[in-house]
Amino acid sequence: MSPAALCRIVVVALLALYVLPAGAGWEAANATYGKSDFVTAMKELRPLAERGDVNTQYNVGVMYGQGDGVERNDPEALKCFRKAAQQGHVGAQMNLGIIYSRDGGVPRNDAMAATWYRKAVERGLPDAQFQLGIMIGAGQGVPRDFVEAYLWLEHAAIQGVASAVQKKEVLSLAMTDAQVVNAEARVRDWVPCGQAPKNRPCP
Question: Which phi and psi (to 5°) does residue 133 adopt?
């Protein structure tokens, strides 16, 4: 069982796994999680999360979000994801966007969902790019902007999000030729934060 075994995301459609470092307590938690002993795994992980380990905070959030070893608890998942997201964990940022954009669990807040999706977008996460593109195209929680929506949908499509291709094509039908040209130029110019040649700081 690899360390990635604990790294499941709340929404199955997001398949990215995040490998965690080995360390004191981690090996035992990973072994018990691999045996589906979620209760024990949670007991072993929670102290690591409380000490500020970003990856463990993420995993504890996933377990709360999925009800692994504890009763499903979206507010607790939210707290764990926020702690990890504030330390730059892209999976936690994505999951915060998911939690805030759905009904139930915690109060729905489209503007907050877009804020967290945008942080994951800046790090190049295709599922976040797709979700943010849809929200911007619809003006859901953010100002409607076809050019920016096209930008994120195109980047999601380039990275293999199949549904982004169709959404981008439908969106382009509502755009002027000048808007499409502008959007394509922005697609070519954009790179994730922290990467050459721009090396922009990540939010």
Answer: -60, -45
**Mean pLDDT of successive 10-residue stretches along the chain, which has 203 residues:** 38 33 64 86 90 91 92 92 95 94 82 97 96 98 98 97 97 98 97 90 88
What residue type is assigned to position 145 of the chain? D
Residue spans per domain, the chain? 1-108, 110-203
| Residue that has been written with the tokens 């994801």 in this structure | 81
User: Is 97 in contact with 131 (CB distance < 8 Å)?
Assistant: yes
DSSP state of 70: S
2-14 b/e (C-beta count within 10 Å ≥ 16 → b):
ebeebbbbbbeeb
HEC string for 123-148: CCCHHHHHHHHHHHHHCCCCCCCHHH
Q: From the options 2.30.42.10, 1.25.40.10, 3.30.565.10, 3.40.640.10, give the CATH code of 1-108.
A: 1.25.40.10
Give the predicted TM-score (pTM) of the model: 0.84
Cα 172 to chain centroid distance, Å, stands at: 26
Best CA proximity match to 86, nearest among 58, 111, 51, 108: 58
pLDDT score for 13: 28
Beta-carbon contacts of 53 under 8 Å, excluding residues fewer than 6 positions away, are none
| Amino acid 11: pLDDT | 38
